[in-house]
Write a structure and sequence with these properties.
about 40% helix, globular, seven-stranded mixed beta sheet, alpha/beta, Rossmann fold
Length: about 210
């Protein structure tokens, strides 16, 4: 897998042109987002992991195999960030999600050890309102007992109020769980989007004739 960091921007203006599908990853600070992204990309240290949650304050665009962008959004909900910064991130998230041309889909990350927070539910609501396809990824499942996992996953879905058919990926960067499933889903989404675009284009050509 070829991976390249092509943009790191504090706002939407610095993003690449919308020529490829984008998959946005968003989650609460300290939920394991950087670790999961590194796991998915098959790179150590590509997405920086910090002992200080909330360090990611930019939109990071990773070009993957010249096929799609994986977008790392700033973590939300870290208490030590100023109110001004939190307000700026909120505005950025909402502006990012309001763009109907992109992203193709949004993956919300949730720490499997905890119930979804008020902020988790709020962000999930924004994603659903945006109309973009959505998936959930439970992180750090290696820290949850095997007998408790099913109940934890069910609680996440019910608390967030998402459609029960929403793609759900149990993941663990430590144990190498979830990468294959997420990449397969991304590939399927790209294929479906390409076919839909081609069908729309064909219909348009027939109309012109």
């Amino acid at each position: 897998m070829k991976v390249e960091l092509v943009a790191s921007s504090p706002g939407l203006a610095g993003r690449p042109e919308p020529t490829l599908p984008e998959f946005a990853f968003i989650g609460r600070s300290n939920c394991g987002k950087s670790s999961l992204i590194n796991h998915i990309l098959g790179r150590v240290g590509m997405a920086r992991i910090s002992g200080k949650p909330g360090k990611t304050r930019l939109l990071h665009y990773y070009l993957v195999s010249d096929k799609f962008y994986l977008v790392d959004l700033p973590g939300y909900g870290y208490a030590k960030v100023s109110k001004t910064q939190r307000a700026a991130w909120r505005k950025l998230f909402q502006a990012f999600l309001s763009d109907q041309e992109r992203p193709l889909a949004v993956v919300q990350l949730l720490d499997a050890r905890h119930e979804p927070s008020v902020l988790d539910r709020e962000v999930c609501g924004w994603i659903m309102e945006s109309g973009h396809p959505q998936a959930l990824a439970a992180t750090k499942i290696d820290k949850v007992g095997a007998t408790r996992r099913a109940a934890s996953y069910r609680s996440m879905v019910e608390t967030l109020g998402v459609d029960p058919q929403t793609p759900f990926f149990p993941t663990s960067a430590v144990q190498g769980i979830g990468r294959t499933e997420i990449l397969a889903w991304i590939d399927a989404m790209i294929t479906a989007n390409t076919e839909e675009t081609e069908e729309t284009g064909d219909a348009g050509d027939q109309g012109d004739i």
